[in-house]
Specification:
Helix content of chain A: under 10%
Largest sheet of chain B: 6 strands, mixed
Helix content of chain B: under 10%
Strand content of chain B: over 45%
Number of helices of chain A: 0
Oligomer: heterodimer
Shape of chain A: globular
Number of strands of chain A: 11
Number of helices of chain B: 0
Structural class of chain A: mainly beta
Distance between the termini of chain B: 37 Å
Structural class of chain B: mainly beta
Strand content of chain A: over 45%
Number of strands of chain B: 11
Chain lengths: 113, 109
Amino acid sequence: SQTIHQWPATLVQPVGSPLSLECTVEGTSNPNLYWYRQAAGRGLQLLFYSVGIGQISSEVPQNLSASRPQDRQFILSSKKLLLSDSGFYLCAWSVRGGREKLFFGSGTQLSVL
Amino acid sequence: RKEVEQDPGPFNVPEGATVAFNCTYSNSASQSFFWYRQDCRKEPKLLMSVYSSGNEDGRFTAQLNRASQYISLLIRDSKLSDSATYLCAVNRGGFKTIFGAGTRLFVKA
């Protein structure tokens, strides 16, 4: 069966510090991969998606970036965090060709102080 | 106007009650519709897809009304374990799925 791993679960970072969140998927090949952010009491906002290694599409301009160095690995990064980057970050995958159904990782609660 | 809107609630219902949530979407080109369940500080989990003909999964029934652009979720015989936030999600056929902010449900003994 397919599983998705995301870490760390919680992170507290000072403003201006770098960020790296990692997500890996097991049990499937060529998944579509996504990064979402959920602010408190709000809906999920799509940040990035990827259909293959090195292929990244950005949905929202910001100081975050994403990379996909391997087929089942997706990384969210920032060089300098802002207070507004705080939130619940969720990695998700979908089957290639069945992209609508999303399966989420357990999320990272990021607090930027 | 948000593309997907939900009543945030909370809905407070006793065990055994029937409760219904609606979700409206603004883009008539939307093609796929879903309900997700999210427990506090956890990831959303797919509850069910929503089809034009309506679909049922145990105590849960989902319906789509394309003419009025809304989807609904009906929960019968509510259980304490149904307490959660229910997110509706809409996809236009691309890679972008739009989520509502969620409706909170509390089921009480």
